[in-house]
Amino acid sequence: MRIHSRNVLYQSLFGACIFVFLFLLFYGHPDVGIEERVASRRIAELRDRLVQVETLNQQRLSDLAAARTELKYFFGTKHNASAANLTGLRDGSMYSASFPLFSSLGRDLTSPGIHHYMPHLVGHPEALKPRFKISERRLGVSLVIGIPTVKREKENYLLETLKSLIDGSTEEDRRDCLLVIFIAEPEDDSFVASTTKEIQKLYPEELKSGFIEVIAPPAAFYPDWNDLNPTFGDSHERAKWRTKQNLDYAFLWMYAYAKGTYFVQLEDDVITRAGYATTMKSFALSQKSNDWILLEFSSLGFIGKLFKSRDLMMLTNFILMFHRDKPVDWLLDHLLYTRVCNPEKDGKNCERMKDQVRLRFKPSLFQHIGIHSSLKGKLQKLKDKGFGKNELFRAHSNPAADVSTSLKIYQQYSLESAYKGENFFWAMAPKAGDTIEIRFQEPIAIERFYIKSGNAEHANDRLFNTTVEVLPVSTSQQSDGQAEQVAPNYRKTTDGYLVVGNFSASSGVAQGSVHNNTGPISSLRLFIHSSSESWIIISEVLVKPLRRTTSP
Predict the structure, then answer these.
(1) How far apart are CA 318 and CA 521, in angstroms?
(2) Which pLDDT score is estimated for 82?
(3) Which of the 8 DSSP states describes residue 227?
(4) Which pLDDT band, with edges at 50, 70 and 90, does 369 fall under?
(5) Is 182 helix (H, G, I), strand (E, B) or coil?
(6) pTM (2 d.p.)
(7) DSSP strands (E only) in 81-203
(8) What was the pLDDT predicted at 86?
(9) Beta 435-444 vs 521-528: how paired, if at all?
(10) 3-state SS of 399-444?
(11) 298 close to 364: Cβ distance less than 8 angstroms
(12) Fewer CB near the last or first residue (10 Å), C or N of the chain?
């Protein structure tokens, strides 16, 4: 009854959110339509979080059933039960008499579980928890990123990968994401210790805040490798490598399952692009249908694959069933085939169906940098050709300035981050009279300016009917006539700015130079002359000062 009441509560909360959204949409303030995309994303995020909570509640019931099974194994292995007692255990009579609380969860059928796929775990509950862990127990994040790492024969790329992920994240990302470093060397304590020490030395604050966790699995989780039967003509060493890799993924997924809404699988030899976390979350929340199984942010192997966390158990079960037979990327493709393909139809139809649940984001957010594989002696010079194309923003070294705007900023996409080249600026639909202003901390002579609106993903979020204006220092010191003599070719605004350029309607770019006679400039302003329903992105800002030469 308690579980049923929770289900009703979650459904009621979600229904209330939908009602409030529709009410505001049709009867609220006339400007609500401008923020419809934001509201839709928030509702989608709330929906996914509520579904994840419901999934976790169902998992708790499964955990109780698993505890019952563990108790059966405990009595069977620890107490050398007699044949008669074993009969009692099998039919549940002795168990029910001894444990009436657990017997209420009893069932006549035996449900499949991890012990059926990995019988060596029977009697070893310690095998299903990390033997080493550094964690602040962060829960409820939007994005969990799993990074398994192993000891390589030559070069190790983990720290470079970790640096790229941290440098490419914002403060908000670090509060709403979790990086799980999975050191998959169960029999090499020295490697686990040295890797952990390096992470602690470089990223103590990230560990303390809970942004980074480090775990290592127990040796008991893995089977006796001597019992492995290679397939596809592989050597024993190669079969062991891919089988262990499957089990590494399974352990990591089971650990990450309850920690966030989405899970992203990475490798330990990749680099990423700035803003990757926000981009992945936005792409997931923007899907019109929630039927997708997998979102891909790289075209290579098992890099940048995003799943709903609630689907991780399905994926884990499937991988464990066949973990000895095939590598993980093959098994993932088989899972998609099983879910959506009709065997009575041809291969082309199957690929179309898989493409409806396996969605590809472009350009790629991750690039493979490793050359030496984790498999001894294997070299792989794989590169994602889509990485680095269609940059979302471009950085420049601009003069020190204070920036401000009357536009409503979307999330963390601030004007300051765009001016500094750390991200792009993103704001909601502008109104006539809105401005973007750059006030230089020291007046400068401007040789050239280049400002680009829109980017590869949001090409229509451009500035239209917008002028570029500068405020000369001399304006406040001279009369109108004197100012016109300084720059006779520039139109002057009522508040003393000179119009030096405008944004192209076709390209969304404003560029040009400022005449030498204008003198030092204290401020550069973008003035929007008409309202628009489109949002605004500034993806590149270049202000190049004039370098004056002095005579010796």
Answers:
(1) 65
(2) 45
(3) G
(4) confident
(5) strand
(6) 0.58
(7) 132-134, 141-149, 177-183
(8) 43
(9) antiparallel
(10) CCEEEEECCCECCCCCHHHHHCCCCCEEECCCCCCCEEEEEEEEEE
(11) yes
(12) C
